[in-house]
Write a structure and sequence with these properties.
alpha/beta, Rossmann fold, Nucleotidyltransferase, domain 5, six-stranded mixed β-sheet, 16 helices, globular
Amino acid sequence: MKKKEKCGCGTNDKATSQGGCSAAAGQSPEDFDQLLEEQMLKERMGRIKHKIIVMSGKGGVGKSTIAVNMAISLSLAGRKVGLLDVDIHGPSIPKMLKIEDATVQSLNDVILPVEKAGLKVMSIGFMLRDRDDALIWRGPMKMGVIKQFLKDVEWGDLDYLIIDSPPGTGDEPLSVCQLAQPVDGAVIVTTPQDVAIVDVRKSVNFCQRMNMPVLGVVENMSGFVCPKCGELTEIFKSGGGERMALDMGVPFLGKVPIDPAVGEACDSGTAFVYHYSQTETAKAIERLITPILALSAEKSVTGNIETISNNKTEGGTMKIAIPLADGKLCIHFGHCEQFALVEADEKAKKVIGTIMLTPPPHEPGVLPKWLHEQGANLIIAGGMGQRAQSLFADNGIKVLVGAPAETPEVLVKAYMSGTLRTGANSCDH
């Protein structure tokens, strides 16, 4: 009897004649490659819990500024965050984060995102040979690069991916909706005047046609609060975005007033919501993330309950971190050169040992996470802003401010004996 032959895939000739072998059935290599790409995209997006697109039907409304500061606020709240810039023709995210000179690296056909202050960032701006280069691309090319950013970038496990889209309802937001499924919703940015509202209403209609929830409307540049007297001046009127949201039956997230420091922060690449956290504008931006945080009932990886249990002292010992400059406590916390991490026995009230650590670059939210990883339970500082103190509390680290400029040994012994004298917070900003 003649032995049955098998094709390359291992399927016998009977199965082949019945169409059981995809190769023999006429499936092209292109179809197979497309199937693999779809699987890779699905797997990559499956590791991201929530995907949020920030969009507007009008240019110049501060959409990228809102996207950047929302991402930073989520990161400061202890979430794992990615920030994707899909504005192909006018990428501004690299400049706003002061990483425009960063070079994208690849490893085993995987693109590694640029990391800044806990954020994973990707933008076409990283790939331009010259910052002044103009990309003259049609829709299919733009969709191709957006697909590559979603499929080939090693985003890892994220709580949130914030996607900054260019103005309008064209190729870029449409590609995101089709490729990054499911998208949890859109944050739509507008300014108060009618000429902006007319175009922004189209963004709401776009979301409705795409069956994508509108998480809310942000009325940006809504009035100017004088930093000296506190008087509110409505430069571009006020309330247009709020009235539009009410009229179209979508949530209104709030008004964000004009602040000259926003422009300065964007140009210098500093995080406005962190460095100017006490301003009304920063507080308004921080409130915008409330509905985004509500998307997930899971606790933050650096929530109070978890981090405090992680940093419990064992055997009556604790670790005290002290910021130093020239061997003594640095009065201004953010300017320290080193940290002394002192291990002490609470019961015996004595120092067990001290190690000197060089801190990572001073960026929003970095030091609290870093000191938590070092096992610190307490920080003895000269001065520290309220926002920074809150971040350390979220990481289970107690902060003691107003300490004098002494050596770590003197400060710890005084603390253990209950004789440490503290004064006013010398750096409350």
